[in-house]
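The following block was generated as part of the benchmark described in Methods. Ligand: tryptophan.
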Amino acid sequence: MARSAAIEKRLEENPESLRMLTGDRPTGALHIGHYFGSIRNRVKLQQSGAEIWQLIADYQVITDREMLGDIRGSVHSLTLDNIAAGLDPERATIFTHSAVPALNQLMLPFLSLVSVAELQRNPTVKDEAKTAGITSIGGLLLTYPVHQAADILFCKANVVPVGRDQLPHLEQTRVVARRFNERYGATFPEPDALLSEATLILGLDGTKMSKSKGNVIELRMTADETAKKLKGAKTDSDRVITYDPEHRPEVANLLLLISLCEGVAPELVAEEIGDGGGGALKKRLTEAINTELAPLRARRLELEGDAAYVADILRAGNARANEVAEATLDEVRERMGMVYT
Ligand code: TRP
């Protein structure tokens, strides 16, 4: 949190010094957890003048599942979500893992810098294996934090907006950068995480947000679908609404969402709703979310039909990512003394 605060300060004073990279796995549509946890920060960084790199982490889809599903559809959808949310393809580089060979090749020297024991301790990897019901962890799942280090370091990003669950990977990236620099000379920055204040948002049933549990509001939903989904959100039997995250986690979560949309403290929202009960709470949240997402949804609808537009953006983003990844790989080879001709 202290590091995040330091970045916020740099963002005001010296935005050009910031290069942001973040990524999403194309496993389905983005939801409000992504939106409040990361996307709003991306757009804010872009608006302040930081350089933006937005990865669609397609190789990471097969870390915890065998099948890629409708990968084309998911990549298309993810690109749209990001642009509709405000990423400007003229200023942000949007690209996919699979189209940038030099990025992937960085994983080789990076793997030599980490130990198996260190990888096996990574709590996020363990968590993902557990959630996916995997008992025998595959080679890619075990090593994907190192692949993620390649994602971040290939363009020498120094700020990474993520949720709390990604902190172990960011720490791994810093370790990889540090060890590479120690062994071969100063090459990579040690990037900082930018945590949003919204990393604790839960699903509509009060458990961890997950598309497979159906407890999320997707960005692309219509206003009506959102209203219907929120009607089913879990509350409790206490009619008077109060903000009490410890004893009333479901109600507190809905209040927090309103607070994030409206920019009003959750305690104040609770006071205003008072004895209106769960019904009034959900009604206010429905309005808040639909208002917050209306511009994004309108823009998304506009772009949706234009498959060529999305393809053009990815083509340009991949070309730029390749240029930078090749330059970094050249530098790495040079530092390692692997230049022979
Ligand atoms: N692992 C991230 C997730 O599951 C996605 C991701 C891939 C990422 N590469 C990244 C996030 C680089 C930040 C930086 O959400």
